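hey can u check if this looks right to u? its 341 residues, i copy pasted from the old doc so theres a chance i mangled smth
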Amino acid sequence: MKLVGPQLLCFLNMGNAMPEAIDLPEFEPRLTTGEPFSDAEREAVYRAIYSRRDVRGQFRPDAVADDVLLRILDPAHHAPSVGFMQPWNFLVIRDAEKMRQVAGIFARANVEAASMFPKDRQGAYRALKLEGITSAPVNICVTCDRTRGGPVVLGATHMPDMDLFSTVCAVQNLLLAARAEGLGVGWVSILKEAEVKAILGIPDPVRLVAYLCVGKVESFFATPELEQRGWRTRTPIAELVFEDHWGRKPQWPGPENHRSESFALGRRPEACVGPSRGLYALGRPLGSTDVLRAGCNSPPAVFAFRRISPRALVSSEAGSADSVQFRGRRYSPDGREHMIG
């Protein structure tokens, strides 16, 4: 039996068993370089990761432009998904009345949530601001369509929740892209899913995975707000890494000696007090690295929605701006390192 492409999917979706042999069409793979990013690119990626913060109370009323919104949604759509099923949808909400209704759902659920904590923590819980639904100019509801890909999905046959996990990868990409654009995002999870779905017209069996409040902010917390307020502290990485067996500490010294602060670029006050404070960018490359230039007042020059190889991420076509010194190194606008002498 020879089944290829859509024929095979149709065959499986009709309830048939996987045939013993499948003739797949030959193809010429398109590959990109496996080399690591340049120092400038790597620093930009790590900065987005370490300086990302959940935002609740620092939103400005400024509208988020459509092109900027698309620049954070497209990376979310490029997240990894098991079986390439891409189970996500992004419901953009600007309707003030719908936001008000969702905020009401939160308020009722938050009262219930407070009562679930020990009495000695309920006061501290109520003092926390845990949403910015109506203060953010735009909300984004990220969903997971559990029927996408049909009844049999490559990679999800024995772990059926992989579609949900894949959708969370999309959320993470959105959070990092938003930080690179100088946008704050607050993830609101104290909600009754059925009530939110009813307001937004989300059908079953589509699941609500993340309700996000998005907007420009005056500043980001240098460290997580819950940590600053004494709710919880970050667990050292050394306590979370095992080797070969659960609970077995690694024999290599990495996790024990690692200090997140050595990579936490966002904790530098001159770079992370606010999205418009100072030029943190290492040059002005065109393309998707330009989006990582959070901290620059000027908008990205060019953004192309395509998959780009690491070599193509840095370009010298953006002009001859002055070189930038960073962490004992000096970089030209095209990301090349120069000796400081």
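The longest helix spans residues 96-116.
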